[in-house]
């Protein structure tokens, strides 16, 4: 007789809990998903299975209000449990990621303490009526559920009569799931930030490298120009030195067949433009420094000296005092170069007179 009473009582609880949600889901999205509702509400079922099924109902008809309402009703539906077993209490999902549909989060399910020897709330916490009032209200105004499991939401409301609940804190399993989810989220965020930072660093390194290369290129170009300029200046200086050496160097550059003396120089000092020897002005008349060279050379330059004196006399070129006169100065240079060639010494006073 007692066995029959137990069977009747369990059947009554099951019949009381299941039909509305099953019918509503079937009407909204068809019997395929509707037919799965009873199995998710059984006492031995995984409490998270009901939430996953609710997500599937919404996904079956995205944007459909009837499907969303049916899914909400399913989440709000009481799950069965054996009121006669040891530690008979309902179970709630501890996975903080479920339900995944945002519109379904923060909704609590109804509970029943029918047939329980000790009603909910007897040992502290909310009664069945109190938590059911909150659950009904959550259909219209969902609880804040970001990062929280359904089990945590019950604990926060002050309901502790469920499997795994801990007085004064979150359900251990729920807390573990939340901690793991948070840790996973932090790791993912850290990984993303690290990747972003690495990308930024790589970009900065590349930009720095390019900047350095560009700087090096500019510096190289600048140094190249400088070197080229220095090279040209050096070359020009060398050329000038060579000419100056030719103009000042005496017998070292003697020509073939010459008597190898001289040179007669053209020297400008202030406003005096004179012919000279050994970098010293001698006279306005070129014949004077030429005679000195001929006297030094003696008989070895006799023939050359005779020819030179004839050329100098015929040219009529002499030095001058006063302001620079390019034409006169050039004539002095040309005469000196001609004389020096006969003396066997190369010079270029035509273009490079000695300026003191």
Give an account of the 3D structure.
With 356 residues, the protein is mainly α. The chain has twelve helices and five strands. It has helices at residues 2-17, 19-29, 31-34, 37-41, 47-60, 65-76, 128-140, 150-157, 172-248, 287-297, 302-315, 326-343, and strands at 265-269, 272-277, 280-283, 320-321, 354-355. Strands 1, 2, 3, 4 and 5 form a five-stranded mixed β-sheet that branches. A hairpin with a 2-residue loop joins β1 (265-269) and β2 (272-277). α5 packs antiparallel against α6, α10 (287-297) packs antiparallel against α11 (302-315) and α11 (302-315) packs antiparallel against α12 (326-343). The longest helix has 77 residues, at 172-248. It is rod-shaped. It starts with a helix and ends with a strand.
